[in-house]
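Catalogue entry: protein

Sequence with per-residue C-alpha cells
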Amino acid sequence: MVVEFCNGGDVFERIIKQRTFSEWEATHVIQQVAAGLEHIHSKGIVHRDLKPDNLMYLDNSPKAEIKIIDFGLAGDASKAPLKTPCGTAHYVAPEVLSSVPYDTQADMWSLGVIIYMLLCGFPPFFDAAGNQQRLYKLIKSGKFRFPSPYWDHVSDQAKDVIKGLLTKDPKERLNATQVLAHQWLKVLSYTFLPFFFWNVFASSSSSSLGYGKAVKEEMNDLYMEQMKFFQSSRHFTNNKIGQEQGNTNDQKPVNIFAKQQYAFDYE
C-alpha cells in the first residue's frame, strides 16, 4: 500500500512548537477537515476517531494542507447505523457512549471538541483526576461553557459553531456542509488569501470585530500551560472506548493495530 507522506507533524505538535494558535489558523485547519468529512460522509463513512493527533500537516509550511489519517476505526453507515462504542475518550459523541445506533454526526461532535481545544488549549469535557466514568457522564450531559479568561478573545462566530457541533441531539447538530457554510469560516478563512495578507491579519490585534486575532501575548503562557497539562494527562485518559467497554452488540470484536486495541463494526 502506498500512502501520501506527511512530514509536517500533527496539529498538537504544531501548537506546542509555535506556542499559540489563532482563529485564523484554526479556520485553516477546520475548513479542510470539514471538507474531508463532507466527502467521506457523503459515502456513508464515519471516521469514529477524529482528534488533533489524526490531523496531519502535509509539510512544515505555514499554509500546509491538512490530511485526516488513521481510518482504522472507520465504519460504513450507508446501509444501517453503527452500534459499536469506539473512539477516543475526550472526543467521543454522547450517542456513542450511550450504546445507541449512530451515524456520521458522531464525527461532527468530535470536530466541535477539536475546535474548542484549538481555541483555548483544553477540551470542553475534562476530568482533572482522570476519572473515566466521570468524563463520560460529563460528555453525555452535553453541558459545557466558555470560561474566562480563556475565551475572552474568541469571536462569537467561533462559539456559535462550537455550540452547533456540541449539540447533544445528533439530528440538531451541524453537519459538515453546514459548518463549511458558516459565517465563521466565510469571514475568517485565509485558505485562498495571499500569504502576506493573512499573515498580517492573523497577528493583528486591532480588528474591529476581533477577527483573525492571534491569542494575545499575555494569554500565550496560560494557553500553553493548559495544552501541556492536557497533553500529559491524556495519556492516562486517552483510552479507546471499544477497548474498555467491550463489544456490546453481536458484531465481531477486537483487532490489534500497533499499541492500541480497537473495536470494529463489520456491517
User: Anything to note?
Assistant: The chain is about 40% helix and 5% strand.
